Amino acid sequence: LHEKIVGIGETGLDYYHDLSNVALQKKMFIAHIEAARQTKLPLIIHSRNCDADMIDILQVEQKNGEFPALLHCFSGTADLARVALDLGIYISISGIVTFKSALELQEITKNIPLDMMLVETDSPYLAPTPFRGKTNQPAFTKHVVEYVASLKNISVDEVAQQTTQNFLKIFAKVKAL
User: Full-prediction pTM beyond 0.70?
Assistant: First the structure.
């Protein structure tokens, strides 16, 4: 495995636009899970409008053999978050959490243990407030960190340090600067 490969994905299920064959999505997702299991590389999971199927697959596949994973750009339900955390799957929070309409996600974020959380921008989309509607960029991660800190009533430094440690733990091939 090439030294620059640090993870597998983005892969998963997306039922939002109903443009892809669901059975094929599931088959390919399970193949990627097996690749993560074999390589011990973290699986970056995309999950959109498919929580029941995602929960089922994650529970079955973790029983078939553990694999490291994170739910990227989380926008799912509290049930999906709870199951993922119970299975040891990290949850990554994006700029969506800063949107006024994201009340459910904000509540879920408050309850995600900081040692199981990552933050991201999902560039070039989903720029956090105050940049909503503009092209997103990695520099905007700072705003996600600040928002998460305010939700959890902890310091920005605490969120930044812990989520960085979490990133380095799950992406073990990446070396800290």
Answer: yes
